[in-house]
Amino acid sequence: MRLTAEKLAARRGEDLLFSDISFELGAGEGLILIGRNGSGKSTLLRVVAGLLRPEFGQVRWSSSSTDDAIRASEACHYLGHRNAMKAELSVQENLAFWKEFCGDFGGGEGVSVAEAAEQVGLGGIAHLPFGYLSAGQQRRMAFAKLLVSYRPVWILDEPTAALDTRAEATFADLIRQHLARGGILLAATHQPLGIEGMQELRMTGFAGVAEEFAA
Ligand SMILES: Nc1ncnc2c1ncn2[C@@H]1O[C@H](COP(=O)(O)OP(=O)(O)OP(=O)(O)O)[C@@H](O)[C@H]1O
């Protein structure tokens, strides 16, 4: 399987944040986006996840076990800066919603809600409302979303923000397991994730005025 980005460019307002970004990631491979605040890392992640339309270029998914015509975004889990959980629902209810909503992509299966909570080290508190949890606990539970339904591509924006060192190590282990099972990782981070063998892409920010690029 393969995630391919071809000559991507994206605009925010008048300006192109980046242009001509291409990469290819196969099973077990990861790419880390680095760069200063505002350099376009989150924007590129959102383009690949299908949440923002690129100005130019395309993202493609190909695999022997799934129909190549499917949109790349269907193969992706996206964990953004925000946790995308309802504060007033319990952790169990939130994760059960995401399990049902995302479903499993061909070729794999998510774990149960209880198992996912265990894997992020919070098995005992899944009955609590999400809003009661600490910032780090909320981030861990948001990560559990990636585990309850199977998607081969994990797109993570600052996944370890608000985490203590133990939780950072837990996340690194879960990401390593994902890669070892043939998953793909695309992440933006200021803190090293502690995962060996990742490619890096440095984002530099302003790439020109969109109209100039089009001309
Ligand atoms: N909706 C928007 N409209 C206009 N400009 C935007 C919008 N969203 C983001 N931007 C701008 O696009 C630029 C890139 O933002 P982006 O969030 O992709 O950067 P980043 O590299 O992820 O930054 P950080 O490291 O702070 O998370 C910033 O200058 C930001 O102000």
From TrEMBL:
Biological process annotations from GO: cytochrome complex assembly
Entries under PROSITE patterns matching the protein: ABC_TRANSPORTER_1 (PS00211), ABC_TRANSPORTER_2 (PS50893)
Family designation: Belongs to the ABC transporter superfamily.
Domain ABC transporter residue range list: 3-214
Kinase recorded as keyword: no
Name used for this protein in its record: Cytochrome c biogenesis ATP-binding export protein CcmA
SUPFAM superfamilies: P-loop containing nucleoside triphosphate hydrolases (SSF52540)
Alphabetical list of InterPro entries matching this protein: AAA+_ATPase (IPR003593), ABC_transporter-like_ATP-bd (IPR003439), ABC_transporter-like_CS (IPR017871), ABC_transptr_haem_export_CcmA (IPR005895), P-loop_NTPase (IPR027417)
Source organism per UniProt: Pseudorhizobium banfieldiae
A GO MF term: ATP binding
Catalytic class of the enzyme: hydrolase
EC nos: 3.6.3.41
Pfam families, per the entry: ABC_tran
Domain of life: Bacteria
Keywords: ATP-binding, Cytochrome c-type biogenesis, Hydrolase, Membrane, Nucleotide-binding, Translocase, Transport
